[in-house]
Amino acid sequence: MMSTVKRLLTSLTTTASAWTSVAVLLSACHDASVPAKPAISATASIAQSASELSPAARLGQKIFSDASLSASGVTSCASCHDPAHAYAQNNHLSVQHGGAAHDQEGFRAAPSLRYLHFTPPFSIDAEGKASGGFNWDGRAASLAQQAEGPLLSAHEMANANRQAVLARLEKATYAEEFKQVFGACIFNTPDAAFERLLTALERFQIEDPSFHPFDSKYDQYLAGKVPLNPAELRGLALFEDPQKANCTACHVSQKRDDGGAPLFTDFSYDNLGIPRNPDILANADPAYFDLGLCGPQRADLQHQTNLCGAFKVPTLRNVATRKVFFHNGRFKDLQEVVQFYVRRDTHPAEWYPVSTKNKAQYQRFNDLPAKYLKNVNTTEVPYDRKLGTPPALNADEINDLIAFLKTLTDGYHE
After folding, report:
1. Distance from C-alpha of 52 to C-alpha of 245, rounded to nearest angstrom
2. Does residue 69 come out as left (phi exceeding 0), alpha (psi in the -120 to 50 range) or beta?
3. What is the CA radius of gyration of the chain?
4. Which DSSP state fits 200?
5. Is the pTM of this model over 0.85?
6. pLDDT tens for residues 262-308?
């Protein structure tokens, strides 16, 4: 897996000079078709500061914050992925609002965009386990492809089609800059222009160091620059203990094979039986279920029913800054999230409604159809507990674990 990530990073990085060269080549309008995107440099590195961004990445930065590209005129990428909140949402809404009149509710919580460019391609191994890909269900193959969804989604930026996006882009204050970078005639070839827009957004997320600063307290601890306090060290031990929190089963805390800092995700998918969220409008329909890898937003894996209800494991970097948690934004507090992990099976009354058939039982995993309840992870620690047995962590241990999780917040200064 780590070698895959390393190859991915190498294949994605490019230099500002490469983009400058292509801007010169495309600066004049010709009858010939729009040239292909420039070749990727295998030796370039990610920018060390925003001032070193390539021309394409600088365009992507402007596009990212441009609400005029939406049908409502008030929604941009940054609306749901606020740079001041680790490129995640800045409010406690379970799902965000968008649409042409900014009155449409979404279906899933907005994930953080930090460290996403490390994501490997989506795959399913010989044992049927899924990994990689972008979005909660891995349906996008790249950061560029992922960016297309919000631009065209009816409940997000709500553009009717690619042409509608480009019509708005041509009126943007940076339209001339777009032509300077991608060619004077780029808007004459709509598909190519739209692909360049997506490329610019991708370049911004890859090159800008604010998307992957690796400057948390834990990063500095691994570098030998600062110590962790006793509570944080106890929390780290619990995090890595396979018989306690067992977080490292999915959220790897060790350095990568290439010596890079840990990403705190293995890019896998898991079905945790998250409680149904009544705050999501779509859930008012009792027949509606968000099944992650099985749809409804992804349609190609519906036949692999063992994957129904599984969602991508996110990084735990900056988890303490999150306003909502899990794919449906059901939880709003990190303390409650950790309690759910360790008390889901021992104290189901805290999370699930009473059964309508038997008042002595609870509707566990109530956001899944009955036929998919078997897909919920009930074998790994800490999900292997039974009703009435002690949870994997007590109250003090939960507090220690949270103390450690707070060391994963970027921007640490003593």
Report:
1. 41
2. alpha
3. 22
4. H
5. yes
6. 999 999 999 999 999 999 999 999 999 999 999 999 999 999 999 99
